[in-house]
Amino acid sequence: MQGVSHTTVSLALKNSPQISAALRSEIQALALKMGYSPNSAASALSNFKQDSQTKSIHSSIAWLNAWRLPANLRKFCEFDAYWTGLEESVRPSGYRLEEFIIDESVSLQRLAKILHVRNIQGIVIPPQQDFVADDWAAFPWNDFSVVRIGRSMTAVSSHLVGPDHATNTILAFHEIQQRGYQRIGFIGINQTTHMGTGGLLQVNAQVPAARRVTPLLCEKPLGADDHQLIASWLLHEKPDAILCDQIMVPVLLAKLGVRVPEDVALAAMGISEGSAGAGIDQNGLEIGEAAGAVLLALIRANDRGIPLVPKETLLSGKWVDGPSMPICKNSPAD
Fold first, then answer.
1. Three-class DSSP category at 244
2. In terms of Cα–Cα distance, which of 272, 270, 259, 281 is closest to 326?
3. Would you kindly state where each structural domain of the chain is located, as residue ranges?
């Protein structure tokens, strides 16, 4: 093709936005006519070389924070681990992770203009809790590569990376059973987006009806005044062990005079928040790293916008022993 450099041809075949859409189409059509097909081995080697060399910082990845109290986002150890893992994942490719706060002074529409001016192409949406209302659907998602961490942001159906709550729930339940506990209760939030409930239903179906404990599923996170709710549930269900995803549970148990583990053993779905000494380590750093890898792949492929078929990358956690879940005194293993 006369008047076109090798570099231009190479960029066009990589579908680079640096080349106009019309010229890309012309070059790609001509290449197809000539029987061109990508060399997968060469492409893999090229990507390896790019990934194995730390580059100087040339752009940012946007981390969106729409919390009403933005400082609270990374006070959660798990969410802070997402940030750290993500930051370490994108830095070798020449990106810094930068937080953008959505509030009354910076709406989503204004944020879009800022990101365009700064040529920021990648967006990560971390877990959002009590977030600022805005027209998320009206944001120009087609201009950006987007990844969500977790399921709390339901208004944006982008690709997703997060913990495998169902698998983690099954793992925790089995570990508690192996320590000899017979009546295992679950305290969590009743949300359709909370996938751990599916795992709970699966394991509970295998428990004899006489030992099955009805879970305490709340409509919102437990507060300091919800001890009577816990008290009524304990009185009715009489669990000998509790698996929870609510950080207030040990506080409420102590308020009721219930001792852990003497009166009831306790495990947490996320031990990083310190609600129990035993439970699931959700591998927050690895989740952040995986989110960075997915986003970098989208950016390199010039894959923008909300996909027709969102893909999910779910990482399993691991069980961690602790004093809040000792071997049951009535267990044969004791």
1. strand
2. 259
3. 59-164+285-317, 165-281
Q: How many CB atoms lie within 10 A of CB 64?
A: 23
Q: CA neighbours within 13 Å on the CB side: how many for 195?
A: 14
Chain-centre distance for alpha carbon 262? 34
Q: Cis before residue 215, ω within 30 degrees of 0?
A: no
SS3 281: strand
How much is the pLDDT for 57? 78
CA 199/CA 188 separation, integer angstroms = 13
H-helix or E-strand containing 25?
helix 21-33
Asked if residue 138 lies in contact with residue 109, where contact means CB atoms within 8 angstroms, the answer is yes
**Residue 83, by phi and psi: left (phi above 0), alpha (psi -120 to 50) or beta?**
alpha
Nearest one of 105, 117, 112 to 139, comparing CA atoms: 112
Which CATH code fits 59-164+285-317?
3.40.50.2300
- How open is the CA angle 161-164-167, to the nearest 5 degrees? 165
Residue 103 to residue 231: CA distance in whole angstroms: 39
Beta bridge partners of 217: 188
CA distance 112 to 107: 9
What residues pair up with 101 in beta bridges, in sequence order? 65
The domains spanning 59-164+285-317 and 165-281 adopt the same CATH topology: yes
Share of the chain above pLDDT 70, in %: 82
pLDDT value at position 35?
63
Model pLDDT for residues 151-207, shown as the tens digit of each residue: 989 899 999 999 999 999 999 999 999 999 999 999 988 754 456 667 887 888 888
Structure tokens at 113: 């203009």
Q: Which residues of the chain have pLDDT under 50?
A: 40-42, 44-45, 48, 192-193, 332-334
Tell me which of 2.40.50.140, 3.40.640.10, 1.10.1270.20, 3.40.50.2300 is the CATH number of domain 165-281: 3.40.50.2300
